[in-house]
Amino acid sequence: MAPSFANKEAILIIVCNNEGKSGIPVTAEMLSRGASALDALEAGVRVVEDDPEVRTVGTGGWPNLLGDVELDASVMCGSTLRTGAIGALKGYTHPVSIARQLLERLPHEFLVGDGAARFAHEIGAETGELLRPHAKTAWQRWFDSEIKPEHQAAWPDAPLIEYCHNAVDPEIGKDTTVFLCMDQHRHIASATSTSGWGWKYPGRLGDSPVIGAGSYADSRYGACACTGAGEMTIRTGTARAVVLYMKMGMSVERAVDEAVNDMRALKGGLISRVTIHAIDNRGNHRTVAVNGLPDNHYWLWLPSMKAPEARPAEIIQISDEEPQNKPFAMAVYTKEP
Ligand code: GLY
């Protein structure tokens, strides 16, 4: 892939998280050829949704406690402040495109569950089996070893609360995908897509479809999107906060620092890992992994680059303790032989 953007004066930029690796070349190619920010982001996220190596987004994503894969996604146009978000959607392989169509075709901003599925059906969105053999096997192993016999017998009409607290995400440190970019017209956009936590409570929405928490874009200032424990960024309104801090005059570096400081006020609930990705409207960016792991990285593409480059995320600890919450504390997934 060798983007050949003619207008070297334009400030193009793409930032995506580590899971965006397979999609960012497509986004870069499209952006370099003059595509709109939303079109380029949607195309890149669709690749990630199909990527069999990414087990936290789209087809092949981890299921919830009941063994069903529920997907969340969103898009935001920073020039109109229109958004499209869908949550807890089953059976559709490209939630980011359904979110995009919601933005284009409905007077609403957010659909979940049965309503999202109805809309997806009405627009002829692609359907497919989301639960792949590796995930089904891992879920079955968990079910057989963790669920009490009396609850197995009653399944799925069994209490789930205790199992939700004890569930361990099968693949710690892997995540949602988030993309941010600015196109040749300086339109800024954001997009997200995820299967959320493995073994989540049915109907659980993370931050990915919650505009203002998991993503926000405003072409006048910049954009932000988060990965990791959505329970944290929902509480701090992180993505909107970063953009608002830039509106208040802070640099993208300061704005992200301020959003990290907001997280220091979180008490109780889930305190775990979050990575904050942000760009401003001048082509600057910053990515910070809060309580991050040493191998946390993100992908950056600028017109001066032949191909997108992986960069280490800056790690900021907001707690001296290892995140205590099991779903993000340990990795137990091993590939099937
Ligand atoms: N950040 C993705 C989620 O919490 O589901």
Secondary structure blueprint with pairings:
Layout: E1 13-17, H1 24-32, H2 37-50, E2 71-77, E3 83-89, H3 95-105, E4 110-112, H4 113-122, H5 133-146, H6 149-154, H7 161-166, E5 177-182, E6 188-194, E7 215-218, E8 222-228, H8 230-236, H9 238-247, H10 252-264, E9 274-280, E10 285-290, E11 297-301, E12 309-312, E13 314-316, H11 326-329
The structure holds glycine.
Glycine binds next to strand 8.
Site (Cleavage): 175-176
Protein name: Asparaginase
Active site: 176
Short description:
The protein is an alpha+beta fold and 337 residues long.
3D structure, described in words:
With 337 residues, the protein is of the alpha+beta class. It has a single domain (13-321), classed as (Glycosyl)asparaginase (Glutamine Phosphoribosylpyrophosphate, subunit 1, domain 1). The chain has helices at residues 24-32, 37-50, 95-105, 113-122, 133-146, 149-154, 161-166, 230-236, 238-247, 252-264, 326-329; strands at 13-17, 71-77, 83-89, 110-112, 177-182, 188-194, 215-218, 222-228, 274-280, 285-290, 297-301, 309-312, 314-316. Helix 1 (24-32) packs antiparallel against helix 2 (37-50) and helix 2 (37-50) packs antiparallel against helix 3 (95-105). The longest helix has 14 residues, at 37-50. The protein starts with 12 loop residues before the first strand and ends in an 8-residue tail after the last helix. Bound molecules: glycine. Glycine (GLY) is lined by residues 176, 194, 196-197, 206-208, 214, 227-230. The record marks 175-176 as: Cleavage. Substrate binds at residues 204-207, 227-230. GO terms for molecular function: hydrolase activity, acting on carbon-nitrogen (but not peptide) bonds, in linear amides.
